[in-house]
Amino acid sequence: xxxxxxxILLQFANLQNNPVYLDNAxxxxxxxxxxxxxxxxxxxxxxxxDILPGVWGVYQEASExxxxxxxxxxxxxxxxxxxxxxxxxxxxxxxxxFTIDLAHSDTYAGYNGALKIRIWGGTTxxxxxxxxxxxxxxxxxxxxxxxxxxxxxxxxxxxxxxAFYKDGRFSHQGNILIDNISAIRKCVRV
Length: 190
Prior knowledge:
Elements lengths: L1 H15 L24 E2 L7 E3 L15 E6 L7 E10 L4 E9 L9 E2 L1 E7 L7 E5 L9 E8 L4 E9 L9 E6 L5 E2 L4
C-alpha cells in the first residue's frame, strides 16, 4: 500500500514539474557576425551578437551542437543582451533551476577582455525584474557548466541574458560565449 501511494505521489510530482524549454537554447544557426540567433531578440541598444564559431577570430567548438553565441561589451559603454519569451510562465514563490555553458575567447577581434554574464527574469519583453544569476568573471576558454537556481519573486514571462563587466562599468572590450541552456525545471526537494 505504501509503495502504491509513493508511486502515485511521484507521478503527480512529475506532472507538476513540466520543464520549460527555450527556443534554440543551443544557439544553432549559420555562423555569421551581427546576427541575433533564431528564437531570440535583442534587448540592449547596439546588440549585434555573433553566431560562432568562424567569425571574429573565434574557432573553438561548441559545447553542444554546431554553433554558440557570443556577446560583447565595448569601450563606449555599450553592451549586448538577448532575450526570449518563455512558452510557460514561471510562477511566483517557486524554486527553479537550469544550467548554462559559458566560456571566454582570447581571440575575439580585440574584444578579448573577460566578462561576467547576468541573467534576468522579467514580466515584459527585455524587462529586468529579477536577477537570476550574476556569474563570476569568466576567464576560462574551455566550456564550463554553471547551475542557476532561484526562487521567483514575480511571475516570469521572459528571460534576458546580458554581457556584463565587473562593477557595472561597461567601458571595456570583452566577450562572453554562451551555449547549451538546459530546460528550466522546478526544484525537487526530498
